[in-house]
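On clarity, I found the account of how folds are encoded harder to follow than it need be. An entry of this sort, consisting of the sequence and the corresponding backbone structure tokens, reads as follows:
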Amino acid sequence: MPEPAATVRARRARKRGRGRPRVGLALAGGGPLGGIYEVGALLALTDSLDGIDFSDLDVYVGVSSGGFVAAALANGISPTQMYRLFIDDGDDAALTPQVFLRPALSEFAQRAASLPWLVARATLQWWRDPFRHGVMESLATLAHAVPTGMFDNRSIGDFLRCLFAASGRTDDFRKLGRKLFLVATNLDTGASVTFGESGRDHVPISKAIEASAALPGLFPPVRIGGEYFVDGALNKTLHASVALDEGVDLLLCVNPLVPFDASGAGRNGHLTVKKLSQGGLPIVLSQTFRAIIHSRMKVGMDKYKRQYPDADVVLFEPDREDADMFFASIFSYAQRKRICDAAYRKTRQNLADRAGILGPQLAKHGIALRPDRLADRRRHLTDALTDARPLHVGKRRRSEVRQTTRDLAHTLDHLERWLAGAR
């Protein structure tokens, strides 16, 4: 039986990249909360692993809010810098709730303008044949006046364009020093579209993120080249195959949304209410959504093992009994520090629990666990932020010029924190 075309392409890409292992990162979506969780998980991985720099990998794949984090990393923004930009309450914090929660006024105005014509059309339908077209059927015509999204995703694009306009960054896939892929869904065909690949790399990175994160009902579809796009998670949760097709030897994945085990949490004293139905429709819908995307992702992970037997795929997720993660709204911003800290602690625990398996698996790719830090139960997120430094990357060593630049950047980070403390 012939090998799948994707497997052949991946094997050829690995042969071209021989000399050092190729490492990739795939990040799933989950609203602002999902992105914040991913930053916390990356801070834990940066703090606990030696031999890897998450802002200098070979391939990045982002879906929905995971696209924010993936694009920032591909632009050389470290997890520590992301924490200060997106999560910290200090003067450096640039991402505010208003970026995500600005009302889609232009969408509302456009739909409102069509309302008189739709009312006239519905009335005419009923008047011409009242026995065939009931009142409710005629009124269904008015559904065309319902806005396709509540919030304006153009503010997200504006924020990202400013972020990527800084020196050393770019909003152009073709000018990146590493490969970045952002996945969205074509609304009219239902097919997944990968921005950043040949033929789609002319689209600005900020616009591709807008499209990939356009969750139906919350954000209007994004128009790009005469086509309309919505959230990339509609077809797949991670789209990890995009990175595996590029021939990565090791793919690290972070999925921030998992179904909640209320029964287990109740038995362990983490929850007093054992039946989620008591939480009403929002809780039921949240659990349903999480269960669907997680089940779909598990099927995909099993498929990757068969289709890409030469690649190692490592997944990090929250605890299924974590009530705080489940009951926090996926658009929560006020709880960002607590969620980030929970992600940091959970990922550290995950590394420690799987050390026997992950240690040898990562060692094949020049990456080592740091047992001293994993064994330190008093270690906190603030320690990781304070101790952030350029890592010794072994086989993945950069040129002296790039390393010196990184050293200077981290030195400036320490000075910046000292000045903030002094103020």
About this structure: The longest strand covers residues 179-186.
